[in-house]
Design goal:
The complex is a heterodimer of chains A (397) and B (279). With 397 residues, chain A is of the alpha/beta class. Helix content of chain A is 39%, strand content 22%. Chain A has helices spanning 17-25, 30-37, 66-73, 96-106, 122-126, 128-133, 137-150, 166-179, 196-213, 224-230, 248-253, 258-264, 269-272, 292-302, 322-332, 354-361, 383-390, and strands at residues 2-13, 40-51, 55-59, 81-86, 89-90, 107-110, 184-188, 216-221, 233-238, 241-246, 284-286, 306-310, 316-321, 368-371, 377-381. In chain A, the strands form four sheets. In chain A, strands 6-7-8-3-9-10 form a six-stranded mixed β-sheet, sandwiched between helices. Chain A has a four-stranded antiparallel β-sheet with strand order 2-1-4-5, sandwiched between helices. In chain A, a hairpin with a 5-residue loop joins strand 12 and strand 13 (316-321). Chain A is elongated. The two termini of chain A are 25 Å apart. Chain B has a single domain, classed as MetI-like fold (Orthogonal Bundle), CATH 1.10.3720.10. Chain B is built from eleven helices and no strands. Chain B has helices at 2-42, 45-60, 63-78, 82-112, 114-129, 133-143, 147-171, 175-183, 188-222, 230-239, 243-276. In chain B, helix 10 (230-239) packs antiparallel against helix 11. Chain B: The chain crosses the membrane at residues 43-59, 64-82, 88-111, 132-159, 212-231, 243-260. Chain B: Belongs to the binding-protein-dependent transport system permease family. Chain B: One of its GO terms (molecular function) is amine transmembrane transporter activity. Chain B: Residues 85-264 form the ABC transmembrane type-1 domain.
Chain lengths: 397, 279
């Protein structure tokens, strides 16, 4: 179900936007429009849907219209044409007073340069949205303190923004955006002004909060790594248009055009792909049900040098090598069990990126098992496929 | 030139048709001014100096500063100009109050509307370049001789910096901060009272300071149309070529100016000290 819906949205900057709109709808592009009547095409026929609870990233270079699009959602910028719907409410037609109320109840916003009020202390900054809503001082301070604690800034409530570091300021910005408990968070280059280490820390913090809060987040960034790390889905913008929408993997696997492909050329697939996307079916032997001979036959058919042993419930027990099995069969016949031949292997878990998994592959040349959190065997990943994926030669489906 | 005649005709028309209106305005302003004057002249120099000392201490937390402020007030008494000094101070305070009442809203409108700003800027330029004596004539014609035309002339002369610096202060508020207030659903009034005015406060106080200084400078000129006080002393000094008399009154004006200037500056520093401390 879509929660935020954007339909045929246009934004043209300039005094004669109506006339310019007709030109754009008639097929005039951004450069021509500017050359002809000096109007800037900010947004060109945008159609988007964001699902409830989704982390949606809008990405593009500066001037691509991403910040404009974000601001049209809560009408900090008025669109020239088109509709924005949040739930059942048509934001674009709300009268002024109702729009203010709607902003108070629906949107929290986080800004690139924090935009804290320098003359208010941290607690009052965090509770500012509640102050605007007219809540009593006691309620404001109670809720403000709770949010300060959640972003790890208890003890700073009496400080002023000028006394905080950039990372701390943005924690305050985040707490302020969440304070009125709105369903939607709008984040405009929220971490772009922070240095890389702090930025990573803030990204983790945001993901952790999102796990608990399940807000609908629209996050604008020009940083592709950030987009891929955070976003459930990503919209890539260029010249006021949305060029492609999809998950990180979809976009990486099938870029919509050369522009997106060029954009992606700097991305490291090792950071994007997850191990389970490379999964293959291994030769599996069930302990206590199958003997040495049956195991060897399976490996022979598959051309494999080893097999993965599970118990009756599917829990991974270990790995056996074909050569050891053959030796044991020769020496002891069918009497020998599989147990004595089991060898351990390092295991992967779903959600691991290739980069994280890479060190485990240095220990052995054999395919590594992926186990779920209880230890059940889901499949294996071969070293060859891992390398192919990292080199961009293998694209997961 | 016909323009001069036209302006004369216009003023005559105003006086003939709206004489009663001006009379009412005049009465209102007069009682406003007399309120300040009564307050100050009823207090002895000791009380005024004491209040100024306390204000100085409260604003700066520096004993030397507060003592200096008190001393400035005492100097006026010591020069034997206490009563005249208080008449002047009352005129200045009343003029500053009226200037703030007029200047703040106009400045806010300018800060919010580029159109209104474009309309006001040339008017303000004209007000500030026009020789101050020119204001005396219509004030005299419309309100007669006395304290009220002096007050009006002083306000016209002193109000432009209040308007300009209010406008500047509002325009210097960071765009992103204003956007944040808007994004969280602040109404126009909430933005003004919770964001714009507090952040423009240093500029507002700078405007208040300049307005006060200009009002003091106008005091001597306004004495020509019947404002009493220190200006009158200077004027008498000029007319009688009594250098000493003029100089003593001049020193008293300077003392007033320094006390007012430093108190307002201290207020400005106190207002931002809280949050200007970087870590």
């Amino acid at each position: 179900m879509s929660f935020i819906r954007v339909e045929n949205l246009y934004k043209i900057f300039g005094p004669k936007a109506g006339q310019a709109l007709e030109m754009v709808q008639g097929g005039t592009d951004k450069d021509t429009l500017f050359q002809k009547i000096r109007h800037v095409l900010g947004l060109n026929r945008i159609n988007l849907e964001v699902k409830q609870g989704e982390f949606f990233v809008i990405m593009g270079l500066s001037g691509s219209g991403k910040s404009t699009l974000l601001r049209v959602l809560n009408r900090l910028i008025e669109p020239t044409a088109g509709r924005v719907l949040v739930g059942d409410t048509e934001v674009t037609t709300l009268p002024h007073k109702e729009l203010l109320r709607f902003r108070q109840d629906t949107f929290g916003m986080v800004f690139q340069h924090f935009a804290l009020l320098p003359h208010y202390n941290i607690l009052r900054n965090v509770a500012f949205p509640l102050e605007l809503k007219g809540l009593s001082r006691k309620e404001r301070e109670e809720q403000g303190m709770a949010w300060l604690e959640r972003v790890g800034l208890s003890g700073y409530e009496k400080h002023y923004p000028g006394q905080l570091s950039g990372g701390q300021k943005q924690r305050v910005g985040l707490a302020r955006a969440l304070c009125a408990n709105p369903p939607i968070l709008l984040m405009d280059e929220a971490f772009s002004a922070l240095d890389p280490l702090i930025r990573k820390e803030m990204q983790d913090e945001l993901l952790r909060l999102q796990q608990e809060l399940k807000k609908t987040i629209v996050f604008v960034t020009h940083d592709l790594d950030e987009a891929m790390r955070l976003g459930d889905r990503i919209a890539i913008m260029r010249d006021g248009e949305v060029v492609q929408v999809g998950t990180a993997e979809e976009i990486l696997a099938r870029p919509a055009d050369d522009y997106v492909a060029a954009f992606l050329s700097g991305v490291n697939p090792a950071k994007i792909y997850k191990v389970e996307e490379l999964v293959q079916e291994p030769v599996t032997v069930v302990l206590e049900r199958e003997g040495l001979r049956s195991a060897l036959r399976k490996m022979g058919q598959a051309g494999a040098v080893n097999a993965y042993v599970v118990n009756r419930s599917g829990f991974f027990q270990g790995m056996v090598r074909a050569e050891k099995l053959a030796e044991a069969l020769k020496a002891e016949g069918e009497r020998g069990g599989l147990e004595s031949l089991l060898e351990p292997l390092p295991a992967l878990s779903p959600g691991q990126t290739l980069e994280e998994a890479l060190p485990l592959f240095s220990e052995t040349a054999l395919p590594l098992p992926i186990l779920d959190e209880k230890g059940r065997l889901l499949g294996v990943v071969t070293r060859g496929r891992l390398i192919a994926a990292m080199a961009g030669r293998y694209v997961p489906q | 030139m016909d323009l001069a005649e036209a302006i004369n005709a216009f003023v005559r028309w105003l006086v003939q048709n709206y004489g009663e209106t001006f009379e009412a305005i005049s009465q209102g302003l007069l009682s406003f001014l007399l309120f300040f004057e009564g307050l100050l002249r009823d207090l002895s120099w000791f009380w005024v100096a004491g209040l100024v000392f306390l204000a100085g201490w409260w604003l700066s937390r520096r004993l030397v500063f507060a003592l200096g402020m008190g001393l400035g007030v005492w100097l006026i008494e010591a020069l034997g100009l206490w009563d005249k000094g208080m008449q002047t101070l009352a005129l200045v305070l009343a003029a500053v109050a009226v200037s703030v009442i007029i200047g703040l809203p106009l400045g806010i409108l300018m800060g919010r509307s580029d159109r209104f700003r474009g309309f006001m800027l040339p008017i303000l330029d004209a007000m500030q370049t026009m020789p101050s004596f020119v204001y005396l004539i219509p004030a005299l014609l419309l309100f007669g001789l006395g304290k009220v035309p002096a007050l009006i002339a002083t306000v016209i002369y002193a109000v432009p910096p209040m308007i300009r610096l209010t406008d500047l202060g509002l325009r210097m508020v960071q765009r992103e901060v204003m956007e944040a207030a808007e994004a969280f659903g602040a109404t126009s009034w909430q933005r003004l009272l919770k964001v714009e005015l507090p952040l423009a406060l240093p500029n507002l106080l700078a405007g208040l300071n300049q307005t006060t200084m200009m009002a003091l400078a106008m005091v001597v000129i306004a004495s020509m149309i019947g404002a009493r006080g220190l200006g009158e002393e200077v004027l008498l000094g000029i007319q009688r070529l009594d250098v000493g008399r003029g100089a003593v009154a001049g020193v008293a004006i300077v003392a007033l100016a320094i006390v007012l200037d430093r108190l307002i500056q201290a207020a400005g520093q106190r207002a931002v000290k809280r949050y200007r401390e970087e870590r």
